[in-house]
Amino acid sequence: MSLFGQDRSFLHALTAADRRSLLAEGVRRVYEPGEVMIRERDTSAYVLALLSGWSVVSVGTERGSRLILALRGAGEVVGDLAAVDRGPRSASVTALGTVEAVAVSGDRFRRFLAARPHATALIMRQLATRLRSADVERRALASETVLQRLAARLVELAERAGRRADGGGTVLELPLPQHDLAAAIGATREAVAKALRLLREQDVVRTANRTVVVLDMPVLVLLAQGRARPGGNPAAASPPGV
Known about the structure:
The chain is an alpha+beta fold. It contains nine helices and 14 strands. The longest helix has 27 residues, at 117-143. The two termini are 18 Å apart. The model is unreliable at 233-240 (pLDDT under 50).
């Protein structure tokens, strides 16, 4: 399961000329932290080409909570599904921090794709990647423990958005609070708090306000694979309820 898109983003996969052409079709916007950039079920069709910052893609649940589907950063486009199929928005996109983007109308985006088969192929590959990721996510929700899913998320965040800490370990650069971590693995905040406590007690991670530092990546990887529990015991089962 993955919160991130492909290694090479849509904008970066375009030629420099095509990238300039696409950005010239829109208007620049700046979104503040927590601001909704695209709202689920809305009938708008504009596409946002992200220039800087991180955004969270999420859907609401029947219980009134939300499930985080993905994190999207600079170079990626969001809102493309509604622009392509002209249906309602399938998810909300919210700025995690300050986000700079260029908004391109659905009509202009479709014309851009129609004139550039290479760009159309990139969008189709992006949609296929997201569909495959959704299939993996459903399987994980049905078969993996909260601890295993959390470990997998932390490994991914460390690999894709982490930096070496001065005192050792890897600091996760994306400041996801516990309720967002819970929403990213389909669990309750209480279950995530319990799992984080187990990881802290065994010095696998260190946490502070909106900050997680991974101290023992090998053990975290084993946990994500379901081959260990906190303390690094291979093949040991996770504690009940976690």
